[in-house]
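The following record pairs a protein chain with its ligand, coenzyme A.
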Amino acid sequence: MVKANIQICPFQQKDRESLLRIAADTAFFGAPVENFMEDRRIFLDAFYVYYTDHEADHCWVAKDGEVVIGFLTGCFNTRLQREYTARILEPQALRKFISGKYRIGSKFIRYIIRYYLSKLSSPKDHLDLSQFPAHFHINLSEEWRGYGIGRKLIERFLDQLESANICGVHLQTTSYNKAAKILYERMGFTLLDFFRSLLWQGLVDEPIYELIYGMKL
Ligand SMILES: CC(C)(COP(=O)(O)OP(=O)(O)OC[C@H]1O[C@@H](n2cnc3c(N)ncnc32)[C@H](O)[C@@H]1OP(=O)(O)O)[C@@H](O)C(=O)NCCC(=O)NCCS
């Protein structure tokens, strides 16, 4: 059931701050990013600003009246996004880091060590980007989960991809994102690949697997 007054709307720059706030508030399996780093700007600069600033036309927000309560950040071409992130965004974030613009604490240091260790130790995924070029991230404020809003956001993005003749879409989640997993499977996404993740070791009391789902359009 969708709550009657919820609208799914194209993202506009005036929604940017709310979208980024929700992204940070939900980054740790639906809970705040401060569970694993002290300064949320690092997370947003490295992982989210790309979508709001470079693929704004592929982002959607769910609104209760004028209030943004959730979002889907979409990307049509994952190869371009990965290149841009590695070439521009990560060095930019590194420069801010070196010049002391971020607040660095022990949580962040532990996170970044796990991040690079898991990058080194994870097997290379078998995702074929020519088959599944698009991807997305989706998050809702806690009090709005379970009302069918996530499904509506994804349906809107899938329609947009189909209209643009994009041949496939993928997403990455984890075995710990229980509701997300159910949602993707019910919507017809297929599990393409999975592997054990070390990224959340010590923060979550069960082994975590990274899951990559895809859908041909
Ligand atoms: C994952 C998320 C986007 C799903 O959006 P949502 O609006 O809560 O999900 P919906 O209400 O649209 O549910 C869609 C389907 O999943 C099922 N579902 C959703 N949450 C569920 C839960 N906690 N347990 C069991 N089933 C669940 C619903 O029954 C529904 O199935 P149906 O349409 O066949 O009846 C949202 O819960 C969320 O933001 N969670 C926290 C952050 C997160 O995990 N983001 C995803 C990162 S990959």
